[in-house]
Structures are given as structure tokens and as C-alpha cells.
Amino acid sequence: MDSSADFSSFQEKVTAALIKSTQTVKKIGDEDVDFHRTSSTEFAENLDEQSTRLLSLTSSLLKVATDGSDINPPVLEDEDAIEDNWRGIVDVIDNLLEKADACLDEFTGIIKKLSPPQQDRIREASTRQQEKNFPTIYDYGPSKIPKPQLQFRNAPNNHDTAPFRPLLKSKPHAIVPLEKSLQMVETEKKPAFYPNPYEKEIRDAKYPESAYVIAPPVEFGPVETTEAVWV
Known about the structure:
By secondary structure, the chain is mostly helical. The protein has helices at residues 3-25, 30-39, 41-65, 79-84, 86-108, 116-132, 178-181, 199-203. It starts with a helix and ends in a 28-residue tail after the last helix.
């Protein structure tokens, strides 16, 4: 069977699938995705399923694209991983473009196929050049900053449906003891909750007498007799 015919048929199928997928994606604007996600549970589940499938497919393509090279393909586990590993993705694409350019030059006869020693020298020179490059935005960006929630002493549990219980261990200047302040309140109109431990102290707080005295503002003096102060 003619290999060129097989590739042409495969190319037509891939192109048609890409066009269909692009047209389908464009039917819903980016700003409307979150709205449809919250309004339809089925849509949210399908969206998460397709997102996981596309991330897995992309990771597999990156792995295949780096086969036989010294580039480590990034693993895309979630949406944040795309931003965190964006430079690695760009490196894979650049490597593919360079290979395609070299293959086209060899096919057209512009250059002769490089021997292994020449390829090794070019790879070493490229590596040395990359080490001498100046830092880029990918070296110091939001993706390089550790997420603060990973350093919380008490890790939050987003699936916990129980009322939040204050984390106070002591209560200085208390009017109501801490033990009584941490008792759950249950009402018919509202779900059960824990009140603010300092609710009584805040409501009974009294300001000093000086806070109720009306004091006129101090006017600034004339420039001629006022000494300048360096701030």
C-alpha cells in the first residue's frame, strides 16, 4: 500500500477532527464556561472528564515528541500544571520545529544528513548557549512561587460540611470564658454555627473618654517660621 496515500488519508481525518473540535469550542465563550458549569451538574462532569482526557492526551504527545532526545517531557496533571511547566512545553515544541526544519532541508537537498558526531557537537553547542542565556520571564514568574495554602499549619478541607469552629486555644481579656464562647448555636431559621468568641467583648467594648472629646484640627504654620522635616 502506498505510504503517501495512507498519510494523506490520515491527514484529512486529523484536519477534519481539529476543525470540528475548534468549531465546537467556539460555540461557548470562555467567560460563559463557569456559568454553565455552575448551572448544570452534567455539563460540569462532562467538562471535567474531557479536560482530564485532553491533559492525558497532551502528556502522551509530549512524551512521544521527546522520545530519543534529552528533553524531559512535563506531566500535565491539572490546569495549573500547564502554567507551571509552560517553558518545558515550549522546549518540546521548539525541538519539534527544529527537527521538522532539518528534515525539510534534508529532503530538499539543501543540506546533507548530519553524521552522529556532528549532531553531538551541535547539541553540545546548543546546551552551552542555553546555559549562557539571560533569565527570562519563565524563570521568575507566578508559576515558580510556592502556593501558600500548601504551607498552612491547618490544611483546609473543602469537602467538610460541618460548621467552622474557631481555632482559639486561649482568650485573653475575656468577659465570657473560652469554653462557653465555643458552644454551637442552633436556631430554626439558620443552620447551626459557632459564634465569634469575642462577640460579647466586642459588643460591650467602651471607648475612652478622650474619644468623645471634639478636638479641632491643628492648622499648619506659616512656611517662613516652620522648619522643614525630612520624611
